[in-house]
Amino acid sequence: MIVIGYQGIGKSTLASRDICYIDLESNNFFVDGKRADDWYKPYCKIAEHLSQQGYVVFTSSHEVVRNQLKNSNETVVVVYPGLELKDKWIEKLWMRYSKSRSEKDYKAYANAVAMYEHNIRELAASDIRHKIVLSDVDYDLDDELYKFERTIEKEKRLQAFVEDMNNEGMTDRHSEEKNDE
After folding, report:
1. How many CB atoms lie within 10 A of CB 153?
2. DSSP code for 26
């Protein structure tokens, strides 16, 4: 499964606690301070490959990444906070930066201050089928993803059941037509 995650949802934290999760950091695709125009293509291929191996892969939420992954054969879900969490989310990102003092965390905070509503609306409108919208800043990302995986499993079982029923119906009708001849 591939999780396209908004900044601050807990991608790095969860990946550092559990070997089933991988945080595929997009900053690693800069070479000598520059990133190729098509950096997202190998980035998304790596995410898909790791997902095929059974990992849950966290990716960035850049538009080019979402567009590249929307037609993936892997299960892809976007995770982001709701619009109503703007002030709390920005505070959360500020607190994270205050503790780490990392450039990455400052950029996430500054981006949220300037673009939170735009970013969240963009994620909500994205063509990715599956979405998890966080309604509170107090959540467990592992639990949210577990609930989502259970929902996907149920959908797959239901789809298989419907396909079986359709196939049986097709076979029965075909048999009846042959008997009528």
Report:
1. 10
2. G
Tokens of 39: 């950096």
State the chain's maximal CA–CA distance in angstroms: 80
**Residues 81-140 pLDDT 10s:** 999 999 999 999 999 999 999 999 999 999 999 999 999 999 999 999 999 999 999 999
- Rounded to an integer, what distance in angstroms lies between the CA atom of residue 45 and that of residue 43? 6
From 13, 7, 1, select the one nearest 61 (Cα to Cα): 7
Which residue in the block uniquely carries the two structure tokens 């997009």? Answer: 26
Q: Residue 109: how many CB atoms within 10 A of its CB?
A: 22
Taken as a whole, the chain contains a residue count of 181
pTM: 0.86
DSSP assigned state of 32: T
Tokens describing residue 21: 């999760």
